[in-house]
Amino acid sequence: MNNYTEYIQTHKTRFIDELLELLRIPSVSTDPAFKEHVFKAAEFIKGQLDKIGADKAQVCQTDGYPIVYAEKIIDPELPTVLVYGHYDVQPADPLELWDSPPFEPVIKNDKIYARGACDDKGQMYMHLKAFETMIQTDNLPCNVKFMIEGEEEAGSESLATFVKNNKERLAADVILISDTSMLGNETPSITMGLRGLSYMEVEVTGPNRDLHSGMYGGAVANPINVLCQMIASLTDENHHITIPGFYDDVEDAPEAEREGMRKAPFDLELYKKKLDIAEVQGEKGYSTLERTSIRPTLDVNGIWGGYTGEGAKTVIASKAYAKISMRLVPNQDWYKISELFQKHFEAIAPPSVKVKVTRHHGGQPVVTPIDSVAFKAASAAFKDTFGKEPIPLRGGGSIPIVSMFKSELGLDSVLLGFGLDSDAIHSPNEHYGIFNYMKGIETIPLFYNHYAKLMREELVS
Amino acid sequence: MNNYTEYIQTHKTRFIDELLELLRIPSVSTDPAFKEHVFKAAEFIKGQLDKIGADKAQVCQTDGYPIVYAEKIIDPELPTVLVYGHYDVQPADPLELWDSPPFEPVIKNDKIYARGACDDKGQMYMHLKAFETMIQTDNLPCNVKFMIEGEEEAGSESLATFVKNNKERLAADVILISDTSMLGNETPSITMGLRGLSYMEVEVTGPNRDLHSGMYGGAVANPINVLCQMIASLTDENHHITIPGFYDDVEDAPEAEREGMRKAPFDLELYKKKLDIAEVQGEKGYSTLERTSIRPTLDVNGIWGGYTGEGAKTVIASKAYAKISMRLVPNQDWYKISELFQKHFEAIAPPSVKVKVTRHHGGQPVVTPIDSVAFKAASAAFKDTFGKEPIPLRGGGSIPIVSMFKSELGLDSVLLGFGLDSDAIHSPNEHYGIFNYMKGIETIPLFYNHYAKLMREELVS
């Protein structure tokens, strides 16, 4: 490959400025108040794809937010890479915990601070700039298709329909996604597994109206107390989940993988120090790395009920609510787990309250093959730019669409992530290192190159 | 007594209109946003006291909200009644559950709907109208002093200082308070006991920032889950409170009182139906009436943490909060109970989190003597207007200042309450029956009359 690194260095400032422009669009997909901005972000991506020489760039309308599609077919005989990413972001609240406004990106200590800086605008935009670089330096060795959606943080509902209806247009050899993280900038790793997700909301209703806690306290079930008891009972003293059947389908991770995790560089003291916690806490019999990758979990993501303002109000609330999500591992099925949760939660409710369980969204857990051509190409690309063989690792998060791509398109995904766990995605002060952004733009063309070469070799052999 | 009932009937419309005017002032004492309105309510009361012929009416400034004082000393030889009430109200939220705006009173089905309609503006204002009636019809048989405060819903902090500094001015024979309820309009009762209160707020801190629940879930203690477990552990399967030492000072109610409660008219099915609950729930071994009067309780009044907006956010919150209050019975001491709570809550926190416990306010439980002249006078007055002997009952709520009056001024209080438990005080759609408002205005002059007569007889005997 010729002068592509020089091109990247020459245009570095512009590459960053364009990302900042994208980050200024508050494209929060879960909150209808941001609707117009989500559409605006789609138009921005479409415009950029046009500009860098992709063909047939189009904002494809759906029942929800649009999917931006574009392609560059240079030779039907060459392999095709389908790039997936998302232009929507998580809500920014609690706003008061941000050091600078979430949608006014700032650069501090060589990091870009903004909602979406890493997840996924920063990581997704690397692919546009890598593509531009390959085109401009005459280094594009594969066909490319882009599919950038706007509902990833809200469950990717429209994407499934889009994929079903566009199988021919989306035909490819592999899917390339940058939406995960590495162990560290000195310790490159590639995610080869992702946890699934089942996200539920529960409502506990006691009396039909808020009551005075003096007049009724002690005789009427308090829905907040009851909700706390129900939630507490969902895990036992060893932090096992108590929902009957929950672990039935869990496939234990291979001993070799656990052995590898034990050897992976991980500093527990530093981990605790960075989070300012005295102790970690999790399922008995597993290490911290294992607890966040090969084991399922249950977390309350939000809880509310009663009086939450300043001062004191002596009230027994009529209702209490919680958002509860479970991370799943192979071979758990999120539909089944959601049903088990619902049945169990309804079953443990005392007769003094009513409960309502609703399902938000979910996704299947996946493990991608590490002996595939694509994974080998990714490893080789990382080795070129980081100077080290990357460690294959399972990530704790969920990208539900990976299993959908497999079932609908028959394609494996390569998770070429350049974020760090400390990037505070989904949290106040989300950021993305400029080192990581630029490293991504450098590594992606190498992936294309290795992939094209390995595919050619495979064809010959 | 001559034509006083005629005077009340003649002026009924105005008596109601004046109360509506007072109810239009949103005097929420716990929320600083309503500050000017709380002051305005004090001025309103002061103006009315002037108008109806009370002397020395004064808005007495304090470190918090003012106390309105006025008096009518007709003869130093006559007994003096000190009337206590409050012009502040509870917060009105959740606003969306009100059928009409909380500070725009409406009359429906002979009931006045507004925040404070019963607690305590309606009940307190009866005393001003009863006083006016006695003055206008030449029926005032006692000296009267008024002390109307503005921080009852916020812990009455300034009142204690005011009482300490004004012992001479407040010298009286008995304190008269209308801030409690009766069993029913056909079943008059007088509250002879009140529960105490200890109101705490807790904060549980896990990691130093909100985390992505996929990347950290399973390895880091989730403060919401931990808070739920801690709250759940505060009561056992029999709904006993598990805080060590909590029941040590509880004085069991006399068997005769429990026997009386068993005979009091109470329809459990109707109670459940009105609240739309399938079952009541409470401490094993006690009836519903006992659970809400002679037994202590623990209720979560509010809980919050994490993402509570629309949709789903996969976050592990850094912090979770709850407001927790305990109702106390004789001889529990609220200072001691608050300390026991704090120690216990800190002790049960797992090492993976930090907890902070703060105290809102509290008050001592009280039982007032039912063989006193004042209680007898109250019983006689009720019998006159309701045609039935009132049942002496303990109330479940707390009026912390009753025990403070006893210790600072050496005075017992008579709780001449005309509300109903169904008035939805502290809840949306609080209301007060016009029957009850007018019955109070009729009964109060009779209390004065009986009290003066019984005091004369006692002096003679």
Report on the structure:
The structure is a homodimer of 461-residue chains. Chain A has 461 residues and is an alpha/beta fold. Chain A is 35% helix and 22% strand. Chain A is built from 14 helices and 20 strands. In chain A, strands 1-2-6-3-7-18 form a six-stranded mixed β-sheet, with helices on both faces. In chain A, strands 12-14-10-15 form a four-stranded antiparallel β-sheet. The longest helix of chain A has 27 residues, at 434-460. Chain A is globular, with a radius of gyration of 23 Å. The interface between A and B is large, with 100 and 101 residues.
Largest beta sheet of chain A, briefly?
6 strands, mixed
> What is the domain total for the residues of chain A?
2
CATH class of the largest domain in chain A: Alpha Beta
The counted number of beta strands of chain A is 20
How would you concisely characterize the structure shown here?
The structure is a homodimer of 461-residue chains. Chain A is an alpha/beta fold.
Architecture blueprint of SSEs:
2 copies of one chain form a homodimer.
Chain A: H1 4-10, H2 12-23, H3 35-51, E1 55-60, E2 67-72, E3 80-86, E4 106-108, E5 111-113, H4 121-136, E6 143-149, H5 157-165, E7 174-177, E8 181-182, E9 189-194, E10 196-205, E11 211-212, H6 213-216, H7 223-232, H8 255-263, H9 268-275, H10 288-291, E12 297-306, E13 315-316, E14 319-328, H11 334-348, E15 354-363, E16 366-367, H12 373-386, E17 391-394, H13 401-409, E18 413-415, E19 419-420, E20 431-433, H14 434-460
Parallel strand pairs in A: 3-6, 3-7, 7-18, 8-19, 9-17
Antiparallel strand pairs in A: 1-2, 2-6, 4-5, 5-20, 9-16, 10-14, 10-15, 11-13, 12-14
Helix pairs in contact in A: 2-4, 4-14, 5-13, 12-14
